[in-house]
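1st attempt posting a full record on here, be nice pls
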Amino acid sequence: MKVFAVSDCHVECAQNKRWLQGLPTFGPDTALIVAGDLGVTLTQVRWALLLFKQRFEHVFFCWGNHECWHAPEPAGADAGENAAEYDPQDPESPLPVRFRNYANSLEKLQMLKQLCESIGVHTSPQKMGGVWIVPVCSWYHFSWDREPSLDQLVNLPLDTQPSIAWDLAGDRILCKWPEVGKDGQSLEFGSEAFAQFVDDELNTMFGILPLRGGLTRDLGLGANRPPIISFSHFLPRQELLPEKRFLFHPNLAGIVGSDYVRKRVEEELESDVHVFGHTHFEWDVHLHHLHGPSRPRAGDPEAASQHNGQTPSLGRRRVTRYRSWPLGNPREQAERRAWLNGEEIERWWPVLVFDSRSGEGIGGAESSSRAGASGCACDSEGKGLQRNCPTSASLYPKHEVCFFSRLYEEGHVVRGSLPAHLPDYTAVMYCAAAPRLDWDALCKQVDRHWKDQHPRAAGRVGGVVHSEQKH
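the predicted structure (as tokens):
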């Protein structure tokens, strides 16, 4: 079984719809993980999932924040009220009215679950080809950001205060969530109580919790258990996001991650690979687990040992490889093509995260980035896909694509070092007196493709916030 992954496809964009229509058939014995933000309306999501199903044998999906937006379906979407007019496997078949009658985001997700079931898309744990694939439903909370504020990092007063997480969270306007939980507890947006509510209620609704018997039994096998690949839209660890000094919106961390995801991934599943999305940053890093309910905060010596992606000499079951592979919006795609030339970058196929025949994708830090020796996916006629196999090896070398994770993994910068030096593009925005980081020199050390004053230096670091503010 070859397991591929992609996130943040945003098929509400016409260019992204064309990208999906142009994907080749990856063939039998393949599975695709789609880690959220596929579309805004259920019509868009269904259309995209059906096209993915035509190209992969199995498709797994978990929702992101965009799927929770309370958005009206397009005009004419109720033309399929008559069951005889609705073909579940036809992407162009109108969406039946039964999938449109939702009053809030929670009801919309209930409709989404039913929709996925009707078209054969997996939203709960499944074991295929000897590997478990486990979705994790989640929502962010502001307190997940435990790293020092920007003024603490530079130890200087700021010229301009960055926007707080509350102001960055367009979801509080675009979503309609219940204000009170079943126990009467207030569910304030962005609170830990709200994130816990989503963790409990939505993972139960989608059949993820309680963990099914087969998965529970396999978890008890220790070193003999099968590989486990989990995925979520939101992030489990803050080390999977660039530091505040590299972000146009330094407080972005408040709206991207959840401690409850980390609990599921590292304490319950001890996943070999975890795929995430949302931030629109490509990422590939190995991090080891800290077991138990308490974790060190940023700045603690124990926490510092986790940074830069360095893998200690521990058993494989205590190391998780974290992957993010966003398609992103058209602007981000244009910046990526300007930075990395080539036909492969133009295509930007889903990335291979695991191959059960070779074990590639877990274990040593370079295992998946050299994948591809175990054969290639084939089209329906058994012929190789064009002249290249769609694996992470030949198409997407780790050092060329996952810039920020390599920045930390190879020790070019140390996360949490104080006082922090700022690159020019954030210093001019927030603190002109801050010590400067020679950004271009640093980038040339990391990336042989870097060019002076490259648009990536100031374009990609805005991440998901620029995309959502546009909406």
